[in-house]
Amino acid sequence: RRRSLPTRRRSDPTPAVAPPSESAALLFMIDRAARDTTIDIDRMERLVAIHRDMEMRQSEKRYNAAMADAQAEMVPIVKNQTNTHTRSRYADLAAIAEVAFPIIGKHGFGQSFSTLASDVKGYIRVVCEVTHRDGFSKRYEWDVPLDVAGSQGKVNKTEIQAMGSTMTYARRYLTCMIFNIAIKDDTDGNKQVDVGGPITEAQVDIIN
Fold it and tell me: N or C: which end of the chain has fewer CB within 10 A?
């Protein structure tokens, strides 16, 4: 009897392994260097600094990409308030928050506001710190005059009221500038509401 030779099984292809990133490779080098008792401490610190800078650059790239996505998703916000002094329309902070804040949060951004002393007399420096969930942040500053008087120049607020009004104003404009938000007039506000369906006989009598 002839013995049949065992069938040679075709080996499965080895799955491709993605090459490690530069950051991961550098981190591996740092780990090996940390285990080497002969390594120079200055060289070790330089490796750590290079890794930190590399991570920061990657975080900045993700920040910029997320900012582009958030700005692309923004829609114009309708002016919903009237300034009785200037007789002009504007979108208040609540209107901006309702439309923009969900998009800002969705893309991993957060905002915090603070104030600093301004070099210009009668102004305050409003600071907006925009942080991203990947660790990168940007700081925006704007010197704004304190809103103590109306359009005619007459003082109409206390110092605390002026500070609150100025901060609200600055938050609105800084948010719109940072996230490239457009403000538009409400051109549909006075249109007749279409209730649908034919009119009644009573309405015909009224029209006649």
Answer: N
Print pLDDT tens along the chain (208 aa).
Answer: 566 655 555 555 555 555 556 666 656 666 666 666 667 777 767 777 877 888 889 999 999 999 999 999 999 999 998 887 778 899 999 999 999 999 999 999 999 999 999 999 989 999 999 999 999 999 999 999 998 776 666 666 788 888 888 999 999 999 999 999 999 987 665 443 444 556 667 666 667 6
- The Cα 197–Cα 77 span in angstroms is 32
Residues 6+ apart with CB under 8 A from 147: 157, 162, 165, 166, 169
**Distance of alpha carbon 146 from the chain centroid:** 26
Token code pair at residue 121:
């007399």
Cα(17)–Cα(29) distance, integer angstroms = 19
* C-alpha pair distances (Å), 119 with each of 115, 122, 126: 13, 9, 12
Rounded Cα distance between 170 and 24, Å, is: 42
Q: Is 149 exposed, middle or buried (0-12, 13-18, 19+ CB in 10 A)?
A: middle
Query: Which of 70, 56, 59, 74 is CA-nearest to residue 132?
Result: 59
Q: Tell if the pTM clears 0.85, that is, is over it.
A: no
